[in-house]
Amino acid sequence: MEFDPEAVRAFEHAGWQQAASAYNATFAHASAGFVEALLDAAGVSSGRSVLDVCCGTGVVTAAAARRGAVPSGLDFSAAMLAQARRAHPRLRLDEGDAEALPYADRSFDAVVSNFGIHHIANSDRAMAEARRVLRPGGRFAITTWAAPTENVAWRLLLDAIGAHGDLHAARAPPSGGNLQTPQAALRLFEAAGFSECRAEAVRREWLLSQPRDLLTALARGTARTAALIDAQPAAATPAIEAAVAAAVLRYRRGDGFAVPIVAILASGTTSPG
Ligand SMILES: C[S@@+](CC[C@H](N)C(=O)[O-])C[C@H]1O[C@@H](n2cnc3c(N)ncnc32)[C@H](O)[C@@H]1O
After folding, report:
1. Cα angle 267-268-273, degrees, rounded to a multiple of 5
2. Residue 2 burial by CB count (10 A; 0-12/13-18/19+): exposed, middle or buried?
3. Which of 51, 75, 144, 261 to mutate to test the pocket of ligand 1 (most atoms within 8 A of CB)?
4. Residue ID of nearest Cα to ligand 1 atom 11
């Protein structure tokens, strides 16, 4: 299948609309561990204005407000925004597309996106938009997921599907870019004209109560990974579930399980005006 930006956009939009009600109870436990490092990388502090692109249920927007910053969140999924508005009624949260931000040039001191950019069909357009709305000298910081070979949570799933199901079953349109390494994220920032670009791998743990929670979270709280799980032949599902749960047992910690996860944290600055 060829890269088709409109197909990617429609696929992602439908996926997040569907994941919204389960997101906070499931996948947010993986993505939330990187929020403070992301805000630090963008220099978000008291009194600074910050745009949270792909804000989803508002986890990062709310964390920026707790720092005393003046945040706005933006997402294209009305269902994700409904969750955000319910949990954080005082936050400014706008519906819109990261590829065409509804804000004037030079509106924000910082822009952040936690696990958003790799979902956007034209990530170079989203980078250009972030740069446009930043004030001179402002910093844009993003997180993306490192490759599954580095990321135990995804590797356990893909190993189980490889052994018992079909890794090519999902009829998802191929995504626009590969941002799974620090080098790829750095290239994205440099190509978009940012300076003082940095990218590094950041390691955390995904804390789970039960071994079966990993597959449940990926199936209910994501878009692309959920589509892969959903597309597995019904006859293979019990073996996949059992294999993932058995693999999670190796990561026991106290009453629960701590599965290693790795993100790429990348950032860059706009030239001083
Ligand atoms: C993995 S969630 C991350 C949510 C949030 N940043 C967090 O850390 O919990 C990805 C989000 O990107 C949003 N998204 C994907 N493509 C988008 C686009 N083109 N414009 C705006 N939002 C988009 C989805 O609706 C979803 O809420």
Report:
1. 150
2. exposed
3. 75
4. 54
User: What are the phi and psi torsion angles at 8 (to 5°)?
Assistant: -65, -45
Bridge partners for 206 per DSSP = 259
Q: 179-206: per-residue pLDDT in tens?
A: 999 999 999 999 999 999 999 999 999 9
Which overall architecture, per CATH, does domain 5-269 show?
3-Layer(aba) Sandwich (3.40)
DSSP class of residue 115 equals S
pLDDT per residue over 10-64, tens digit each?
999 999 999 999 999 999 999 999 999 999 999 999 999 999 999 999 999 999 9
**Strand pairing class (195-208; 252-253):** unpaired
CA distances from 119 to 12, 208, 259 (A): 7, 25, 23
Q: Measured from the CA of 121, which atom of ligand 1 is nearest?
A: 19
255 CA to centre of ligand 1 in angstroms: 32
Amino acid present at 260: P
pTM value surpassing 0.85: yes
Atom number in ligand 1 closest to CA 13? 25
The tokens describing 96, both together, are 């819109």
Instruction: Dump pLDDT digits (tens) for 84-118.
Output: 999 999 999 999 999 999 999 999 999 999 999 99
Model pLDDT, residue 166: 96
Domain boundaries, the chain: 5-269
- Token pair listed for 142: 């993003």
Q: Which residues line ligand 1 (CB under 6 A)?
A: 12, 16, 28, 31, 54-57, 59-60, 75-77, 80, 97-99, 114-116, 119-120
